Every structure is written in C-alpha cells, then in structure tokens.
Amino acid sequence: MSKANYLKTLIITETVANNLGLNVGGITPFTTIDFPGHLAAVLFCQGCPWRCRYCHNPHLLPMDVSGQHTWADILSWLETRKGLLEGIVLSGGEPLVQRHLVSSVTQLREMGYAVALHTSGVSPKRFKEVLPLIDWVGLDIKAPFDEYNAITAGGAISGDHAKEVLEALLASGKPYELRCTLDPVFFTPERATKMANQLATLGAKHLIVQECRDNEHRHSKPVSEAIRVAFEQVLPNVQYRS
C-alpha cells in the first residue's frame, strides 16, 4: 500500500463518525481482563487500515461502515453503569483512526471513567494527542519494525508509525503492556531475536507473546521452544498467552 493510499484510509472513517463521537462497531459490557485493575466495558471502534492475516475482528476492518451504536446511545448507556464500571477500554478495529477520539475520551473521563487504549499504533500524531488522557495502553507489536508490511500490508510506513508510538509511550511513563500475536508463518527464531533487540534498544523490558489462532480451523499453534528462547535471551520479562 502506498503512503498516499494509507493516509487516505485513515481519513475515510472521519466521514462516518456519528454524533461527533466514536464510530463503535460492538460492545463488551463487562470485562475483568482487558484493563488491569479495573472492572470495565470494551468499546470496539469500527475501522482499521491494516490487514493482519490473523485478525480476530475482521468485521471491524471496513473503514466506511457506520457502527452498530450511536455515540449518544453509548453515553446514555454508560450513565446507567456508573458505580458498576470503573473503566472503559477502547479497542477495535483501531481507535487511532477515529477523528473524534480526543473529545470522546474527554467525555468518558468527565463521566468519571478511567480509559484504556488498545492500539497497534497506526497514527503517532493522534496517539500523542490522546495519550495524556489515557490511563493504560495495550500496544500490539506485529513484527520487527522494518518488516511490518509483511504482517500489516500497510506499507513500510506502518513499522515507522508503530516505532514512533512505542517511543512516545515509553517516554510518557504511562503503564502499558506490549503484546505480540505470533504469526507462525512469519516468525522464525531469527526474527524473534531481531524484534526483541529492537524493543530492548528502545527501552522495553517485557513482552506478552500470544498464540496465533487460525481463523479458518479455529485453533491456536503453540509458540515453539526455539522462538521462546530467542525472546527470553533478550528481554527480561516474557510471558505467554494462549
């Protein structure tokens, strides 16, 4: 994907954002695992410019689709959840393509909610704008930064953007989690070592490695011992999630 086409896809969602809020394609009304230390709801933002082979929310990828819920209805529902929920998780799709992300997060905070952001880092500019309002970040690391296109189909710029987002996150001091869904077709021990070294050079000290689920056959492939060793020889804290 060319840089021009990539940037164009980031803009498309702006035309379908409803009620000057987030374009939300789905809701999980209660979670205890997506925002550490908080009882939360998850808002799944509609639209993502990347096309990762293993994406587990492919219905949220189209950028030109209006979400299932208006922002006004979501805010009304969240009013009824005060005292029951502590936080809101913004996931996707990709929240960073939402034009009204900053103003929407401001509204959530004014309602008394802490806010977590799950992102792949597609837009450093918007990430830096919203980061001061975010309480916790879950950042997906796809591959060595110079090989991102092999996973995202977003062009070489996709790795540059993800690296810039990680740099901003680490500099902020905000609590965060780095996780990588390990594509078994792509990853080798050599690539795992390369990626771990890139993360360590930037100052990251941990990584959660998630098994990749085959969406066609609905099963996960365990992370090989060789790849485990490759990560663990570089990063001091590596955990695994099935």
Characterization of the model:
The chain is of the alpha/beta class and 242 residues long. The protein has one domain: Aldolase class I (TIM Barrel). About 4% of the residues have low confidence.
Q: How would you summarize what this structure contains?
A:
The protein has helices spanning 3-12, 71-80, 101-110, 124-130, 149-152, 156-172, 189-202, 225-232, and strands at residues 24-31, 40-45, 87-92, 114-119, 136-140, 176-182, 206-214, 219-221, 237-241. The protein is of the alpha/beta class. The longest helix has 17 residues, at 156-172.
Helix and strand arrangement:
Blueprint: H1 3-12, E1 24-31, E2 40-45, H2 71-80, E3 87-92, H3 101-110, E4 114-119, H4 124-130, E5 136-140, H5 149-152, H6 156-172, E6 176-182, H7 189-202, E7 206-214, E8 219-221, H8 225-232, E9 237-241
Parallel strand pairs: 2-3, 3-4, 4-5, 5-6, 6-7, 7-9
Antiparallel strand pairs: 1-2, 7-8
Helix pairs in contact: 7-8
**Structure annotation, total helices:** 8
How do the SSEs run, as a string of H and E?
A: HEEHEHEHEHHEHEEHE
- The CATH class is identified as Alpha Beta
Low-pLDDT windows of residues: 10-18
SS content category? alpha/beta
Apparent shape: globular
How is the biggest beta sheet arranged? 9 strands, mixed
Mean pLDDT: 91
Overall tally of structural domains = 1
Instruction: Say how many strands there are.
Output: 9
Beta-strand percentage? 15-25%
Query: What radius of gyration results from the CA coordinates?
Result: 17 Å
Query: Separation of termini?
Result: 31 Å
CATH topology annotation = TIM Barrel
- From the 3D coordinates, which CATH architecture would you assign? Alpha-Beta Barrel
Helical proportion? 25-40%
What is the CATH homology-level superfamily? Answer: Aldolase class I
